[in-house]
């Protein structure tokens, strides 16, 4: 004798799937622009990232981000290749791929404290 799932069981599975979509399981957007700070330095070192236009402002210089994967980006700073990875919507990691030893996590700054900085016209990603 074959056992088929009941209508109630099927309904629960469908509702669970729909709920998971709303909870971000299949979220394909990018985090909203914001300021992220490395809090282990005094004063905290901050940078601004706009993921939609793929721009990073770090130490008052604007960098163009090259998308590697959906949440991984590359940029050049002083001839070094860096990788910016979005760990969560509130946390990014920057690694220097040219030299070992630089790996820092930056936490999103609360919106009420955030100012949108203006980068200089010296985009260092242009070689």
List the helices and strands and how they pair.
Blueprint (H helix, E strand, L loop, with lengths): L6 H16 L11 E5 L6 E6 L4 E4 L2 E4 L1 E4 L2 E6 L2 E9 L2 E6 L6 E6 L19
Antiparallel strand pairs: 1-2, 1-9, 2-3, 3-4, 5-6, 6-7, 7-8, 8-9
Written overview of the protein:
By secondary structure, the chain is mainly β. It is 13% helix and 39% strand. It is built from 1 helix and 9 strands; from the N terminus they run H-E-E-E-E-E-E-E-E-E. A 9-stranded antiparallel β-sheet has the order 4-3-2-1-9-8-7-6-5, with no helix packed on it. The N and C termini lie far apart (71 Å).
- Helical stretch count? 1
Shape: globular
The mean pLDDT is 79
Helical content band? 10-25%
**What is the count of β-strands?**
9
Strand order of the largest sheet: 4-3-2-1-9-8-7-6-5
Classify the secondary structure makeup into a structural class: mainly beta
Uncertain runs = 20-25
Biggest sheet overview: 9 strands, antiparallel
Q: What distance lies between the first and last C-alpha atoms, to the nearest angstrom?
A: 71 Å
Radius of gyration: 20 Å
């Amino acid at each position: 004798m074959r056992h088929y799932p009941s209508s109630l069981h099927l309904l629960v599975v469908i509702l669970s799937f729909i709920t998971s979509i709303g909870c971000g399981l299949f979220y394909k957007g990018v985090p909203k622009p914001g300021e992220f700070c490395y809090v282990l330095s005094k004063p905290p070192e901050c940078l601004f990232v706009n993921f939609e236009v793929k721009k990073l402002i770090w130490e008052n210089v604007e960098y163009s981000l090259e998308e590697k994967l959906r949440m991984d980006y590359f940029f050049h700073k002083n001839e070094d290749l860096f990788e910016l990875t979005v760990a969560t919507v509130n946390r990014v990691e920057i690694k220097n791929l040219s030299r070992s030893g630089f790996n820092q996590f930056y936490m999103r700054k609360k919106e009420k404290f955030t100012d949108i900085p203006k980068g200089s016209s010296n985009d260092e990603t242009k070689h």
